[in-house]
Amino acid sequence: xxxxxxxxxxxxxxxxxxxxxxxxxxxxxxxxxxxxxxxxxxxxxxxxxxxxxxxxxxxxxxxxxxxxxxxxxxxxxxxxxxxxxxxxxxxxxxxxxxxxxxxxxxxxxxxxxxxxxxxxxxxxxxxxxxxxxxxxxxxxxxxxxxxxxxxxxxxxxxxxxxxxxxxxxxxxxxxxxxxxxxxxxxxxxxxxxxxxxxxxxxxxxxxxxxxxxxxxxxxxxxxxxxxxxxxxxxxxxxxxxxxxxxxxxxxxxxxxxxxxxxxxxxxxxxxxxxxxxxxxxxxxxxxxxxxxxxxxxxxxxxxxxxxxxxxxxxxxxxxxxxxxxxxxxxxxxxxxxxxxxxxxxxxxxxxxxxxxxxxxxxxxxxxxxxxxxxxxxxxxxxxxxxxxxxxxxxxxxxxxxxxxxxxxxxxxxxxxxxxxxxxxxxxxxxxxxxxxxxxxxxxxxxxxxxxxxxxxxxxxxxxxxxxxxxxxxxxxxxxxxxxxxxxxxxxxxxxxxxxxxxxxxxxxxxxxxxxxxxxxxxxxxxxxxxxxxxxxxxxxxxxxxxxxxxxxxxxxxxxxxxxxx
Amino acid sequence: xxxxxxxxxxxxxxxxxxxxxxxxxxxxxxxxxxxxxxxxxxxxxxxxxxxxxxxxxxxxxxxxxxxxxxxxxxxxxxxxxxxxxxxxxxxxxxxxxxxxxxxxxxxxxxxxxxxxxxxxxxxxxxxxxxxxxxxxxxxxxxxxxxxxxxxxxxxxxxxxxxxxxxxxxxxxxxxxxxxxxxxxxxxxxxxxxxxxxxxxxxxxxxxxxxxxxxxxxxxxxxxxxxxxxxxxxxxxxxxxxxxxxxxxxxxxxxxxxxxxxxxxxxxxxxxxxxxxxxxxxxxxxxxxxxxx
Lengths: 565, 292
Description:
The complex is a heterodimer of chains A (565) and B (292). By secondary structure, chain A is of the alpha/beta class. Chain A has 4 domains: 6-203, Pyruvate-ferredoxin oxidoreductase, PFOR, domain III (Pyruvate-ferredoxin Oxidoreductase, domain 3), CATH 3.40.920; 207-380, Thiamin diphosphate (ThDP)-binding fold, Pyr/PP domains (Rossmann fold); 393-447, no CATH class; 462-564, Rossmann fold (3-Layer(aba) Sandwich), CATH 3.40.50. At the A-B interface, helix 1, strand 7, helix 8, helix 9 and helix 10 of A face strand 1, strand 2, helix 2 and helix 4 of B.
């Protein structure tokens, strides 16, 4: 039993409609005012396999899933066997279909944990209630709703709202929800220890990390998006594309990632704000262009949505193994900025900051996100306030004029203003190619000074927890959320959150290290890549590392297990 | 006030070989802009890497000398950001057909309103004469003492079969005709592709000015040649293949295909350019689309 949440998992095959059930459930819970965190696990295929939609329910913001479930609803036998061991004591399984033959181990597990299994033939129930086959989904929803002891009218309202605009039989939908809700197999012993907090009845906003990121980009005046599909970045393209008629942005599905990033470079040179987003493989294709942006001092913002593994890896699972690539990729020495988001709030805010930094410092900015953040559905009351647009557009004689800050004047190409050349050749202050030793060094030094200037602007990592806590986890991205979950569950631990991964501040970290606190590097990759960047920056080497690289995110359970070991 | 070619020049002198076709191509480019009354600050040129791109410093317009093979892709992004600019992608046959052929295909497909100038000297010249897709089979090239082992491809038929909305061929030794073609290409609303046969006295010695003069025929000397007819264009290129002649002029033009931008639902009725629209945007109305 988790002290701060109730968890429900819908499992089945891809293509069976588990997302529909999960989404309706999640929406209805948020309509009642609960905070939820929803996460989808799915294989890289269209039909079959084992997929799930998990909803964690709480009375305040939660930004990570827990590993184990109070309720498991399975639509396929394979998903039953896959998820059965992830059940809490007194959990309930609603299996849609014939009785499942349990293995001896499963039998023992079920007995030991007092797990109750209900077999429902939801299609039959739907048909008997006057519905059609597809309405089996809402039968299951009705049944879950009953176990949660929630008002069935709210669920009906939500179902009807979600189906609005589709050709449906409203009465049959209602009847099917009720048929599930009032099914005779329900008994009072089910879910006895599930106590949901009182619903606040103030409807919450639901959005994915990618949607929050896209909203951040739009807030910052992004006017063009160039994309090429690659999980888990693709839904940024989806959101921007589906809202383009409202936002009036230009959206282009490019022929490949090289084109996407080159188009972004061309648009940014001209003075608008453009975005491109990809995952590891596509990012690799963009690397030469990042080096080009560094040399030509062209603003560029790229989202790198990480999944686990090299090559094609495990395409629909999470990880943060591209931190080192983001920080180091590209030939030659050139300044860049790497920002890591951890949830919808930071996705929204930091994407806006990324554009400001790209414009002001005229360099490539890489926004790191992860499958776990990108596709998870968060609930919130509102997004943070919008950031002010800062661009530092100025006028000057020479586009690459040397300055103390390293930042040269940049003006938007405009009729009547002095034309200039951006070039990937080493160049003079005027922008003409050069190989004169002194000029090569001078210009290289000028660019590097931008990094020092940028470093004065970016903050130290953010500290979450009591000031005198002995145990401090250090990380970036989604690892924060599992640590904060453990903290909320009563653990006296803190988290040091690196949002700015490059350039990187280490004063605060070194101060904590000098106080002999227990610093634990936590990362969703195999080699502790953030730790490597920190070591390169200040020489500090973590003695303790908690690394997870099996494609799964950190759960509160991982943190508690680690602390107890 | 009439524009002067000096405004399109910079203080940098070209570094090309004596007799290089690039001189005339860039002069024709500048001259066409003057005659169209398009100033340097209304022009954007994306330069590739290679001998053509080595002229980037000598052109006083807005520009970007980016990566090898990518000048077309970069130019499309610049064009979409601000369509008030006249946009060119300057690229060699190596960059265009080796490193970045996908960009040519898709720029033609999307029909962006811009002009692609292919400097076709039949080799990678800046790296001292390697074979390209246009180098004849058997010709001795860099690191190929027994001659290039591969056949060359018919790039004209390749381009034409993509149904470009504007396709012309020109010759660097005839800058007057080239100027007229570039002007037509700029005026054409859509993606204009010009394959310019370019003399390369250092690495393509066989194709002397005399050879070109003997083998070039102009399409406007063919009676009743209709460059709006795809069939006639196909036939012309087939004849060129059999007779081993080069036809210069506008080979094919289709004015009925809308540009990429004009097809965008999101931009219907919008008069401003993307470069004018960077401001804080209130996302309140978008929140109803989340969790989709």
